[in-house]
Amino acid sequence: MASGEGFLTEEQREMLKIATQNAEILSSSLNSPTPKSPSPKEHHVKALGGGRASAAGGASVRHVRRSHSGKYIRVKKDGGGGKGTWGKLLDTDGEFRIDRNDPNYDSGEEPYELVGSAVCDPLDEYKKAVVSLIEEYFTTGDVDVAASDLRELRSSEYHPYFVKRLVSMAMDRHDKEKEMASVLLSALYADVISSAQISQGFFLLLESADDLEVDILDAVDILALFVARAVVDDILPPAFITRAGKTLPESSKGLQVLQTAEKSYLSAPHHAELVERRWGGSTHLTVEEVKKKIADLLREYVESGDTSEACRCIRQLGVSFFHHEVVKRALVLAMEIRTAEPLIRKLLKEAAEEGLISSSQMVKGFVRLAESLDDLALDIPSAKTLFQSLVPVAISEGWLDASFLKSSGKDGEVQDKDDEKLRRYKKEVVTIIHEYFLSDDIPELIRSLEDLAAPEFNPIFLKKLITLAMDRKNREKEMASILLSALHIEIFSTEDIVNGFVLLLESAEDTALDILDASNELALFLARAVIDDVLAPLNLEEIASRLPPKCSGTETVRMARSLVAARHGGERILRCWGGGTGWAVEDAKDKILKLLEEYESGGVVSEACQCIRDLAMPFFNHEVVKKALVMAMEKKNDRMLDLLQEGFNEGLITINQMTKGYGRIKDGLDDLALDIPNAKDKFGFYLEYAKERGWLLPSFSLSYPEAPPNLDASS
């Protein structure tokens, strides 16, 4: 035993010592007299009945035993010993320690320790990854590598943060990096990053504009330029500015960004070219360059037959408003190389199904080719036959809208004579409109239109006038509205005006590709026509009813109705383009009355004519004629006729305006006679006076007898 003590631990020695002491106590107790031990049965009864064991712990018999000292003690469950016991087999007490010096030491027996570690956020990892990706792109300029690296991240749900990070990093760098960022966004659009994600990314930028301004000088202006560039590049819809503006607080820098983008960049003339070249960008292509690229990609496609690659190249051009050129050149190529026709049809069909080439662009491409068939037939004798055979195939396969037949004639046959006349008319009126924008001479424009002698094309003139004005400054837009009012009085009927607006709204989608915010501009032109009495409010309903189903023009008409119905809508619409006059109709009438009263009380004819000229409302001069005649009847002062004569001699009051003024008096004679009993007699004399001097159109007639011969001007 003693020899084995060297192998015992301290705990074991302590337990051995206690066991030895217990053995000694036991031996001494056996030598002393003790009461008779109870039988097992009695012991069982005592334990249950509250004997010593019960008093000691109140435990069941199963967990009670007698110690070596003769005392009843409670033992541990499953045989574990209490004080003075060896304990159960493999018992590990809380005091047990592992001795690393033990030859049998195993590190696996060490207690486990939980080590805290930060949870990895996938968004944080994504942000870190795109920073290095963007840095590398700014160094290499390789768009394809950047797109490939972004795809490999496989975190498309976080792409809005990529847009935000790319733009915010470029904002703090040179113009070169800003241009590179815009080019990369255009390249990633649709292929890697969706339109919704682009919009969401820019909205995140607008929300953080206040923070960006702290670190970046001119952050508002730079971010506004990025927004404008995205709109010009067709990766942000123009409506984004309106939608985002409604959700941003009025005091936020983000709202200032949108206002700057809209007013300083997108409203400027030739804004697209200016925005694209603001950072010295070299991505802008001229029309001739685009045509060359289209021709090259089509020939490469005919050689390779790779439709997806051809669609990618078309998309990469970034000229969705010019896709009709792709259609036209593809069809010509199919006629030149007969074996290429199946490939060309496959390309156009797939481009239409993907939405790459819109229905309107497809029709426009076919129309352009139809118009040039005569010239094309000089190089390809069978061009007309091939074209007529291709049209029904395209319609049956679903990539050409059947509306093309309406514009080109039955079965695709081109109506040469009518088309030639229309083409010549369009060319002439474009020149006339440009001259008007330079000279502001309405009578000259009216004479030019009358010389063309094509009243059946009046709606087309209206469409061309407004389309050209929409792509210019507010001055030209105001001039177009004024001209429209004058034309309605002089030579255009209400039906012409209605038909012209229907043509405009039917082509609104195409117009929107070339002109930003075309829908809002058209709505203003419609509302202005109502305010100027060119159209009646009921005409808006008529226009809406004549539009095709699902036409975006219906929304434009609804917007125009809202503008007209708004409180003080008339005054706001009259000043929507900061017009040169800005007079409301009532204001103009009041000014005309005052200048006539001043002239009647002793004014000078030349001064009165200058006041009429200063009104700058030549389309409203019939009001001058009407009020002058009424005042002459009331005041019995025929000096007003001298004013009308001078105005007519100077060309200030045209024959049409004079006739309309006399016509208005004629229509209201019955009411006028209630206040001026001899109104009809007076008017008869004024009518003869006007006819003698050639003021009125020969078609003007009166249904009552002429004035008596003894009536003179002084009566």
CATH class of the largest domain: Mainly Alpha
Please report which band the strand proportion falls in: under 5%, 5-15%, 15-25%, 25-35%, 35-45% or over 45%.
Answer: under 5%
The number of distinct helices, counting runs of at least 4 residues, comes to 38
Percentage of residues in helical conformation = 55-70%
Would you tell me which CATH topology of the largest domain applies? Serine Threonine Protein Phosphatase 5, Tetratricopeptide repeat
Low-confidence parts, pLDDT < 50 over ≥5 residues?
Answer: 1-5, 34-63, 410-415, 703-715
What integer is the average pLDDT?
78
Distance between the termini: 161 Å
Total strands: 2
Instruction: Give the strand order of the largest sheet, numbering strands 1, 2, ... along the chain.
Output: 1-2
Q: Which CATH architecture of the largest domain is right?
A: Alpha Horseshoe
Tally of individual domains: 4
- Which structural category do the helix and sheet elements fall into? mainly alpha
Please give the radius of gyration in angstroms. 47 Å
> Main beta sheet, described?
2 strands, antiparallel
Write the layout of secondary structure elements.
Elements: H1 10-31, H2 40-49, H3 52-57, E1 64-66, E2 72-74, H4 122-140, H5 143-152, H6 159-171, H7 175-188, H8 195-207, H9 209-215, H10 219-232, H11 239-247, H12 253-266, H13 271-276, H14 287-304, H15 307-317, H16 323-336, H17 341-354, H18 359-371, H19 373-379, H20 383-397, H21 404-408, H22 416-439, H23 442-452, H24 458-470, H25 474-490, H26 494-506, H27 508-514, H28 518-531, H29 537-545, H30 553-565, H31 569-574, H32 585-600, H33 605-615, H34 621-635, H35 639-649, H36 655-667, H37 669-675, H38 679-692
Antiparallel strand pairs: 1-2
Helix pairs in contact: 4-5, 4-6, 6-7, 6-8, 10-12, 11-12, 14-15, 14-16, 16-17, 16-18, 22-23, 22-24, 24-25, 24-26, 26-29, 28-30, 29-30, 32-33, 32-34, 33-35, 34-35, 34-36
